[in-house]
Amino acid sequence: MVSLPHTISVLLDESLLSLNRAVGVVRRRNLPIDSFSVGPALTPGVSRLTITLSADQATTDRLVGALRKTSGVREAVSYRGGEGVARELALIKVRVGRGSYGQVLDAIQLFRAAVIDEGPEEVVVQVAGSEAFVVSLIRALEPYGVVDVARSGTIALERAGAAAGSFSLSNSQDEQP
Amino acid sequence: MPEVLTGAQVLCRVLREKGVDVVFGYPGGAIMPFYHALPEFPELRHVLVRHEQAAAHAADGYARACGRAGVCVATSGPGATNLVTGLATAQMDSSPVVAITGQVPRSMIGRDAFQETDIIGITLPITKHSVLVQDISELAERTREAFDIALEGRPGPVLIDVPKDVQNQKMEWDGGTADGRRVAERNDAFRRSASRPESREEGLRRAVALMASAERPLLMVGHGVILANAYEEVRALAERTGVPVITTLLGISAFSEAHPLHLGMPGMHGEVHVNRAIQHADLIVGIGLRFDDRVTGNTAAFAPRARIVHIDLDPSEIGKNVPAEIAIVGDAREMVVALLQAVKPRRCDAWWEEINGYRRQRSEAYHGGLSPEFILGTIHDVTGGRATIVSDVGQHQMWVAKHYPYRTPNTHITSGGLGTMGFAVPAAIGVQFARPGTPVWAISGDGGFQMNMQEIATMIQEGIPVKMAVFNNGYLGMVRQWQQFFHGRRYSATPIWSPDFVRLAEAYGIAGFRVEHARQAEEAVSRAMKDPGPALVEFMIEQEANVFPMIPPGASLSEPIEGEPASARVG
To answer: Where does residue B544 rank: exposed (0-12), middle (13-18), buried (19+ CB within 10 A)?
Structure first.
């Protein structure tokens, strides 16, 4: 039973009640959740909920199974790191003093981030990337004074070329005694 | 000109359209428009309970007994929250209950109005589906959907919350259209995973091969067989292969206990030879069960030699508790039919001989000869085996499960998953509605009986002739047993005082009998049966009798306690 990072992607009816139900299924299992994010999916009226967590395969399969039978859920799939692409968006408000502006800009360039708002003493930086990438930029900016951060949580899709909605409900057959 | 109906009338129309003939409920402020409309629908029999919990259990009992959705109705706030235990019971045991609750008017929602509660939020984890109806225009569709969802696939409870002003709204009624589209869409994922034909065919093929080659095969049969009406098919499968049949607590009565291939109940209070058979089996074909922890004991040590074939309608059950080598997702009846068409006749004589060698004779002494087995045998004999037995939760529940000689399908009804004390008496009311003219016995302990004995009044007012048996030992017996075995005999809060139940029966105006010796049992049960109304029989049983054998919690099925444990004798 090895805990690995898993991403669970859930398509559900675009309603707070459906979202509440789906989140409740996760919440009652008391699992170590790393990230939640929700937004519109391709089909109108459908939301995509993306959950990242560290869990063993059997636990992840059980969670997916429970989500799939939850009222309002249309589809739930899980994949491990390599099977999907995952990104996070962050907005970082950072102080820029007279001496540090250039250094902040250097860091931002290194992370292919952008300044999207500018004030006399602060800038708002937008960055997108893996969770680790985003966290690295926040760490890099900390010496200059990070005032606030808003992060979207991880969103993910299966890799290009993967059949949409392909998934495994493996019943943990590989973990048989 | 089209008719103009109120929301309350629309609700009643749809209930009729869905074939509802009885609703169990209790009026109150936010549900008054519904109650105002109800007398216009004499085909909708209303049963006034004494507590909303009983309405939910009665709806559950009705649903389990006849397979149609049971309906309960309550007002907002406390009325709705009182349904909660009943809904959780129905959820755990896959019972199609539709709960209709009144809600404060839409303009008041979220303002902590009088008797406002977020019943949708409260019941989210214990319902299969729930909906707050926002407008009369969607009321009919949401209500139809509620019934469809409650009944389709693996059944479960659904709650419809209807604000009072929506019940009073008016609309032109054109009869509406029975539209199941949204349901179909919603449960798309479930359906898709439930019907992967290739993997199912493959699973069935492998299962058939294993059933042919296994030396020590077992069939384990659960509630799914009852829900799918697969009794004949399971019997035929067992008879063709000679495989011993184990029935789980909710699978009891899915297979006749008079049948020579019937082995018994497994798990925490299963007989030693049943559990030992599981531990020695090389193949377990589980049909419509979820391998609950009370069945498996320690899962790591469960059936260590067995390959497991798991057949269930709900794909999320497979592999949930025990790993299944072969997963077959589908309706129990259809899957058993498919197995039946492919399995070759065989016998399991050597295996049976081995199992029979595991059988134990236990002798337990009971005060006045009034053993649970004797009492239950008496009820069976006096009712000619025609009774439906609705048991409560605790020691008597295990005795009923172990000793009542079930012959007829779906005549054993109990709260298995949630283990709800107080279930039997109100659930029996619902069962009686589903099975008019047949004997229905609610069997409770003195603890559980006192949790919902107020429903005797309901039986009288509504003319429901449920017969009640109370196993009175002056204790919350199952907890006392655990205290005896595992808590150094410290009987903390388990001695329980009861009123004089016979005089209680008299106070309600029903027949009441007390049985203290075995010789009194038959007459008391006979007189209770002859009485046209409800009747109560109190059995004064051995105070500290225990349910044996017992697998201690967390232990494996190989470690039963078969008699008074040494540590307990010290006192």
So the answer is: middle
In angstroms, what separates the C-alpha of A107 from chain B's closest C-alpha? 45
**B132–A17 C-beta distance less than 8 A:** yes
| Active-site amino acid positions of B | 52, 114-115, 164, 478
Tell me the helix, strand and coil percentages in chain B, rounded to 5: 45, 15, 40
Q: What is the pTM of this model?
A: 0.93
The greatest distance separating any two alpha carbons of chain B, rounded to the nearest whole angstrom, comes to 83
Query: B514: which strand partners?
Result: B538
Q: Which residue segments constitute the domains of chain A, with CATH numbers given? A: 4-81 (3.30.70.260), 85-155 (3.30.70.1150)
Query: Is residue A174's pLDDT more than 60?
Result: no
Residue B40 has pLDDT above 80, yes or no: yes
Q: Are B262 and B277 in contact (CB under 8 A)?
A: no
The encoded tokens of residue B181 equal: 């589209």
Express the helix, strand and coil content of chain A in percent, nearest 5 each: 30, 40, 30
φ, ψ at B130 (rounded to 5°): -155, 155
What's the rounded Cα separation, in Å, for the pair B233 and B357? 29
What's residue A4's pLDDT?
85
Pair B63, B430: CB distance under 8 Å: yes
A74: nearest CB among B129, B188, B324: B188
Q: Which value, to the nearest 10 degrees, does the dihedral of the CA atoms of residues B192, B197, B203, B204 take?
A: 130
Q: Which residues of B touch A28 (CB under 8 A)?
A: 125
ipTM for the predicted complex comes to 0.86
Predicted confidence band of residue B177 (pLDDT cuts 50, 70, 90): low
- Using DSSP's 3-state secondary structure scheme, residue B538 falls into strand
Task: Calculate how close chain B gets to A29, using CA atoms only, in Å.
Answer: 11
Q: Does B125 touch chain A (CB under 8 A)?
A: yes
